[in-house]
Protein: Transport permease protein
Organism: Actinacidiphila epipremni
Amino acid sequence: MSGSTAAAAAQRAAGERSPASAALPGAWRLGLARGAMEIKLFFRQREQVIFTFAFPIVFLFLFASIFHDDMAQTGSTASQYYVASMTAAGIMSTSFQSLGISIAIERDEKALRRLRGTPMPPSAYFLGKIWLVLVTGVLETAALLIFGATVYDVDLPSDVTGWLTFGWIFVLGITGCALLGIAISSVPKSGRSATSVVVLPFLVLQFISGVYILVDTVPNWMLTIGSFFPLKWLCQGLRGVFLPDAAAALEPAGSWEYGRIALVLGAWCIGGLVLCLLTFRWKSRNDG
């Protein structure tokens, strides 16, 4: 076969292969498939499902029962306050805590290393995690709000503006917390230590961000520390959605500060992404 004939044959073969190459699924499609798999795996673990959805509901029941008279001066109820707090804690639990622990375990079990060696683009893996966080976060929040409205007559937003405010706070909060969870997943040395490394700061943040304790009783220096992290602003924004305007007097600034909330949560979305890019590892430290 002459050189020109061989070249023509090679071009025909490349032309025949190009449609197949173009038909390969992209990162977005693979991310959807990966997300569907992550969601299926999540719901197959019954204990994890029960804990995830029961956690904020049980704490709402406990705190609303114990502190039922503590919000009388604002014309509201403790259940109204704690439904906002537990929603914020639930959002951070399904994003920051869940991803921080699960990714560390997958890295320790070398699942991430095997995935990195496949043709799947890395972005598809993270898209799958994002779909898992969104689905579980929405379902957990819906279950909590239904429980609060049914059992404690919690007043939900009555207009479109209230729900829109809830929506952008939810999206910015869950995005920033998810990125922070991905970043902190590189801190534990092993999957066995991941729970301790992730849960401890999450627990501390809940106390200094006004989740369990009324915000006007938290020492100012603790609130100052908490203000560097997204949970404090997530709680404050959701209190603005669920509590009457008179309750804003409990806040350090005497107002809900929606502009600052958007600024801080948006900054955490950008900063969290930078942290992920700088710190994320596909292999454990023991693998070199």
